[in-house]
């Protein structure tokens, strides 16, 4: 995950379009691998839960396998909590990267564009124009000053879209994990808190994917 964040940080700073393309490909690969690993871990937890459930079909089975059931349930909860912590850290890194890209969009607008009278664009206007770009609205006359710069800004916007999509996928994994452990109060609270955090981030961003 640290490698993924480093790639995002470099992508924000680079001005070389060739290097940026390479970084975006690497980010896509790392994001996909991270998601696949988390999904695989969640599926293994699901399998563990089902195996333990087989030992609890009847009261006699529960009594005969009580020690095994207790051990397996403790192992399950330990691994589920560990997975939740990993997912939470991944969520934090993605949120941080998205914030970097949004700030970069505002900086690009301030540096590359001017008002109609040639004066510099202030922070509030840059923030407003950046939001327009994120909402897929590039109709402002300011953006007509340079199509090349606009293309770069749109690429940055697409980076944000991809991160937001990964956050939606993560939210689904949090929900799935919460469902698997819905009878475990303390861990359930941790997982649900992360579900709500993920939902708030996506809703705050409010942008559809590509």
TrEMBL record:
* Membrane topology, as annotated: Single-pass type IV membrane protein
Please name the InterPro entries in this protein's record: SNARE, Syntaxin, Syntaxin_N, T_SNARE_dom
- Which one of the record's GO molecular function terms can you name? SNAP receptor activity
Which UniProt keyword terms apply here? Membrane, Transmembrane, Transmembrane helix
Q: Where is the T-SNARE coiled-coil homology domain?
A: 150-210
Per the record, the major location class is membrane
Entry's transmembrane regions: none
Q: Which SUPFAM superfamilies match?
A: t-snare proteins
Which Gene Ontology BP annotations are present? Answer: exocytosis; intracellular protein transport; vesicle docking; vesicle fusion
Subcellular location per the Swiss-Prot or TrEMBL entry:
Membrane
Q: Does the keyword Transmembrane apply?
A: yes
Q: Does the keyword Transmembrane helix apply?
A: yes
Gene Ontology cellular component annotations, sorted alphabetically: endomembrane system; plasma membrane; SNARE complex
Q: Which family does it belong to?
A: Belongs to the syntaxin family.
Protein name (record): t-SNARE coiled-coil homology domain-containing protein
Protein source organism = Porcisia hertigi
């Amino acid at each position: 995950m640290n490698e993924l964040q480093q790639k995002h940080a470099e992508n924000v700073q680079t001005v070389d379009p060739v290097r940026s393309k390479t970084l975006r490909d690497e980010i896509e690969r790392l994001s996909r691998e991270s998601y696949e690993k988390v999904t695989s871990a969640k599926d293994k937890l699901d399998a563990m839960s089902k195996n333990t459930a087989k030992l609890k079909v009847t009261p006699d089975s529960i009594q005969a396998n009580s020690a095994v059931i207790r051990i397996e349930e403790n192992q399950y909860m330990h691994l589920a909590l560990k997975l939740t912590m990993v997912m939470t850290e991944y969520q934090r890194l993605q949120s941080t990267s998205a914030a970097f890209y949004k700030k970069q969009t505002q900086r690009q607008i301030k540096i590359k564009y001017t008002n109609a009278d040639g004066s510099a664009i202030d922070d509030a206007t840059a923030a407003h124009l950046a939001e327009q770009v994120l909402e897929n609205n590039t109709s402002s006359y300011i953006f007509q000053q340079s199509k090349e710069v606009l293309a770069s800004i749109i690429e940055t916007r697409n980076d944000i879209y991809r991160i937001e999509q990964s956050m939606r996928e993560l939210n689904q994994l949090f929900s799935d994990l919460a469902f698997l452990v819905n009878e475990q109060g303390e861990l359930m609270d941790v997982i649900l808190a992360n579900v709500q955090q993920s939902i708030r981030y996506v809703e705050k961003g409010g942008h559809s994917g590509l």
